[in-house]
Amino acid sequence: MNEDGSMARLPQLYEIAEKFNLKIVSIADLIAYRLKHESLIEKIYESELKTLWGDFKLMAFRQTTTDDEHLAFVKGNWNENEPVLVRVESSSFTNNLLDAIRSDKQSNLSAALKMIEKEGKGALVFMQQEEKQIGLIEKLQAYNGQLQKPTDNRDYGVGAQILRSLGITNLKLISNNKNMNQSVIHAYGLEVSEVVEFAG
Fold this sequence. Notes:
single chain, 2 domains, seven-stranded mixed sheet
């Protein structure tokens, strides 16, 4: 606390720490430490997936702290620190994601997949919010099998670890919010080199 009762911010805390020879750790330091020494995710499923918008590699991750299951649709390859087209979504799996990959219904998800397909590389990370009654992976396996028949389917730390596991640290972020606060993203070891609006 400051002398006037207001909450001390990091610059004031640095002054106090220097005055009394104290060590100080910021939230960003704690996040960086946890990212380096702890993993909140494990990859549990990987498959090729054909969608209306193109062919993608599908990866599923389990969040170790909650058992939630999250997805990444990945296309192409990239070099370390290369800016990569990325969209992060968080919503209901059944009502949004399956519609986006199996129908021509327009949504942010389908628009992101189209943009990644056109770019030739990129990732759509889908953070699950619901779907506890039926296993997400079981749905994916069943849906993926249906797609391939001959008759011609927001936690910053977890999302950041998924992106880092894909080798992505520099984002060309798909968003219509040009004025977003990027400090939280930077705290998780990611950089946004460009904000790309949804294609019209």
